[in-house]
Amino acid sequence: MALDRDHVLRSAAALLTRKSTATMDEVAKAAGISRATLHRHFAGRDALVRALESLGIEECGSALDAARLDEGPASDAVRRLVRELEPAAGLLAFLYGEYQLFEGESQNEGWARLDARIAALFRRGQESGEFRIDLTPAWLTEALYGLIASAAWAVLDGRVAGKDFQFMIVELLLGGALRREEP
Questions:
Q1: How confident is the model over 40-71, as pLDDT tens digits?
Q2: What are phi and psi of 178, to 5 degrees?
Q3: How far apart are CA 145 and CA 102, in angstroms?
């Protein structure tokens, strides 16, 4: 029987989102396979995390496509983006805390491509006069990632209702990013 790699990765993501320190034994158990089988496909935790990173980048890219970032007002595009990213939020929260993914030469170029697309959305909002210009597109992009991770953790911990995920992120981000009329 062939290993269902997608099932293993999604099981690992679900577990590691709830318990980032889970062992490979725990990951194997969550996926319904033996540790030896897991090890044959992922030589260790780093290989598993790198595979999860690829999955996360793929899911983010699909969410960006589905959000139609170039259509309509930028604030509406941000709302669509948060809605499309919500299913991957737990995985993104886990990856956000895996600092080794973002250090040095081994950083996956997929993150830079995603960052560029999101920053372009914020830049478009600035150029249209919709968003403040004193906050850089790079900062707004990082803030979005941080809010998604924080909201995912808060929902997982039961501190906030899952139905409020999109509202919390969009209201806080856009509430701080929207250009205000000078008195």
A1: 989 998 899 999 999 999 999 999 999 999 99
A2: -70, 140
A3: 13
